[in-house]
C-alpha cells in the first residue's frame, strides 16, 4: 500500500514539473516574439541607461563663410600702385578731396579694375581732351555709302541740283556712288561724270570711275579732316619751305 502511494506521488510530481517547464518555455517564446515585433521598445529601453549621463562636450561651431570682396588697382597722383578695395579707395578720395576715376574696366594681367586718384582740374582737362579726341575720330571716319542715279538726258538745272545734293552728302562724310545711264548718248554721260567730279573736288576724291554696258559708275569718297598733329606738321613744313 505504501509502495503504491509512493509511485502515485512520484508520477504527480513529474507531471507538475513538466507543466512548469512548458510554462517557462512559453514565457520565453512570448518575450522573443514581442522583441521581434516591437524592437524599438527594446531600443528605447536600452537608451535609458545613457540618458542620465551629462554631455560634457561642446557643440561644434559652424564656420562662417567669408564674403568675397573684389579688389582694385589704385593709382595715386604720382602713379604709385596699390591694391585696395573699392570702398577703401572711395574713402581715401573723400579724405584727400580727390576724384576717383576708373581707367580700365578689367585688366587682363592683374584681373582687376584700375582706378586713379585725380585732382578736379586734371580730371576736367582729361575729360575735355577725351571728348575732343572722340570728336576728331568721328570726323576722320567715313559713314555709310549713298547711291545717286543720273540720266544722260538730264537738264543743266537738274544736274546742278544733283551736284549740290552730292556735295551735301559728301560734306556729311558719306561716300557717294553715282550711276549715270547712257541712254543712247555716251558723250553726254561722260560730260556729266566729269562735271560731277570737277564740282566736288574740294570735298571729295575719286575712288573709282568705270564705264561698261549702258552705265558709267563714279564712286566719290569724302575728304576726311586731318588730325591737329598732321596739320601742325604740315604748317611747320610749309614754314620751313618758305624760309
From TrEMBL:
GO cellular component terms?
Answer: mitochondrion
For whether the record's keyword set contains Protein biosynthesis, the answer is yes
Give one GO term, molecular function aspect.
translation initiation factor activity
* InterPro entries xrefs: T_IF-3_C_sf, T_IF-3_N_sf, Translation_initiation_fac_3
Does Protein biosynthesis show up as a keyword for this record? yes
Source superkingdom: Eukaryota
* GO terms classed as biological process: mitochondrial translational initiation; ribosome disassembly
Which keywords does this Swiss-Prot/TrEMBL entry list? Initiation factor, Protein biosynthesis
What the record says about family reads: Belongs to the IF-3 family.
Q: What is this protein called?
A: Translation initiation factor IF-3
Amino acid at each position: 500500500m505504501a509502495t503504491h502511494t509512493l509511485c502515485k506521488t512520484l508520477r504527480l510530481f513529474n507531471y507538475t514539473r513538466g507543466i512548469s517547464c512548458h510554462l517557462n518555455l512559453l514565457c520565453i517564446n512570448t518575450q522573443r516574439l514581442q522583441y521581434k515585433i516591437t524592437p524599438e521598445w527594446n531600443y528605447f529601453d536600452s537608451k535609458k541607461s545613457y540618458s542620465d549621463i551629462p554631455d560634457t562636450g561642446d557643440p561644434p561651431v559652424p564656420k562662417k563663410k567669408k564674403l568675397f570682396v573684389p579688389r582694385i588697382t589704385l593709382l595715386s597722383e604720382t602713379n604709385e600702385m596699390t591694391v585696395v578695395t573699392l570702398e577703401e579707395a572711395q574713402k581715401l578720395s573723400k579724405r584727400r578731396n580727390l576724384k576717383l576715376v576708373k581707367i580700365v574696366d578689367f585688366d587682363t594681367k592683374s584681373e582687376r579694375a584700375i582706378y586713379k586718384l585725380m585732382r578736379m582740374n586734371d580730371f576736367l582737362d582729361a575729360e575735355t581732351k577725351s571728348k575732343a579726341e572722340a570728336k576728331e575720330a568721328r570726323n576722320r571716319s567715313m559713314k555709310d555709302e549713298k547711291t545717286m542715279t543720273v540720266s544722260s538726258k538730264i537738264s543743266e538745272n537738274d544736274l546742278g541740283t544733283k551736284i549740290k545734293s552730292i556735295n551735301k552728302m559728301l560734306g556729311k562724310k558719306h561716300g557717294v556712288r553715282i550711276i549715270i545711264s547712257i541712254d543712247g548718248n555716251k558723250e553726254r554721260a561722260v560730260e556729266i561724270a566729269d562735271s560731277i567730279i570737277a564740282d566736288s573736288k574740294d570735298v571729295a576724291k575719286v575712288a573709282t570711275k568705270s564705264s561698261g554696258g549702258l552705265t558709267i559708275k563714279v564712286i566719290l569718297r569724302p575728304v576726311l579732316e586731318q588730325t591737329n598733329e598732321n596739320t601742325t606738321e604740315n604748317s611747320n613744313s610749309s614754314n620751313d619751305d618758305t624760309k
